[in-house]
Specification:
Blueprint (H helix, E strand, L loop, with lengths): L1 H13 L3 H5 L13 E2 L2 H7 L8 E14 L4 E2 L3 H9 L8 E8 L5 E7 H10 L5 E12 L2 E11 L2
Parallel strand pairs: 1-2, 5-7
Antiparallel strand pairs: 2-4, 2-6, 3-4, 4-5, 6-7
């Protein structure tokens, strides 16, 4: 696990997200190619678990465009953190917020937001803004995938 953590940190540090180029100031470094592009509406529909079930999954990195429907707000993240520990994700992210995003088909979906990404969203993306989101798909449940946002950048 240690070698994969070091490799993960190295990959993250290689490339700076597009938002860092577009705006001066602090940002979150991500390697764009480490995140698989997905169409958010289809991803939500395809990642639904049978009602009442939660399925922990290997954390996969995904990237998608969506519209900000609410700013990150403090939320319970106990279950997410429990699943991340179970999956042995290292280093453990700092997560204390959730927000809602709208897919192109109008579906609104809740996502977890890492604390560094939450600060960036609050500073740079108003409700109604379209953006590119970078995150980890951690588990699936009846409403779709549980996604932990790690970074955000402007929409193309």
């Amino acid at each position: 696990m240690i070698s994969s953590s070091i490799s993960d940190l190295s990959r993250r540090a290689l490339l700076v997200a597009a938002c860092c180029i577009a705006w001066p100031g602090p940002c979150i470094a991500v390697e764009d190619s480490a995140y698989v592009p997905v169409e958010f509406a289809r991803f939500i529909a395809e990642q639904r678990a049978p009602e009442g079930r939660v399925i922990p999954l290997r954390p996969d990195r995904v990237r998608f465009e969506a519209t900000v429907m609410s700013q990150p707000r403090t939320a319970r993240t106990d279950y997410l953190m429990e699943v991340l520990r179970f999956l042995q994700v290292e280093p453990m992210p700092e997560v204390s917020r959730q927000m809602f995003l709208r897919a192109d088909n109008g579906v609104v979906h809740a996502v977890y937001v890492g604390d560094p990404a939450a600060a960036m969203i609050r500073e740079r993306f108003a409700n109604g803004s379209r953006a590119t989101f970078f995150g980890l798909r951690v588990y699936s449940y009846g409403k779709g995938p549980a996604i932990l946002l790690e970074a955000v950048g402007p929409a193309p």
